[in-house]
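Lab meeting minutes (informal)
Scribe: AK
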Amino acid sequence: MNLTELLPVEYSCPWCGEPNETLIDPTGGDRQDYVEDCAACCRPSTISVRIDGGGVPTVVVEPES
């Protein structure tokens, strides 16, 4: 895997359930947390990314309070 490539990951908005996509930068570290607005309802969600030793991301999305 080329570590300079952004990894697209799909998730459902915790507010409205609509599908969204985020791009993960694997060079940002194996633990990343940020806030992103839903493309459909515009409400903010906290996105927590964990990248395993093989470069595979796991994403947990929660509503931003």
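Next up, CB showed the second protein from the same session:
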Amino acid sequence: MPNRILVVEDSRTQAMRIRLELLRHGLEVEVATDGPSGLAAAQKNLPTAIVLDIDLPGLNGYGVCRALKEDRRTANIPIVMLTHYDDAQKALEGLEIGAIDYIPKDSFAEHNLVESLRQLGVL
């Protein structure tokens, strides 16, 4: 059974790009388009890893990450933040609340995401 990744991304275009790249690597992919539905999907389906944007409707990525890390059922799910923010302070904030990696959305983002998942043993 392939590993399942939850992608929480409000841009449908970016979510589709990420989903297609992960499918190409043999992963199952579920997509949520806002913070509350991403949190609910993670708690219900317990994915292998979560790819999480920061700017999300309803509850931002930091809030989703905090809630997941406080829930004993989801606390150990690795979270990779994939976002357009590329400054050190935003990255540090994400890592301090429990994200395992922080990847800026640039031309190498999908490659870096795949490599991060490979390092986590998901691929």
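CB comment: The radius of gyration is 13 Å.
No objections, moving on.
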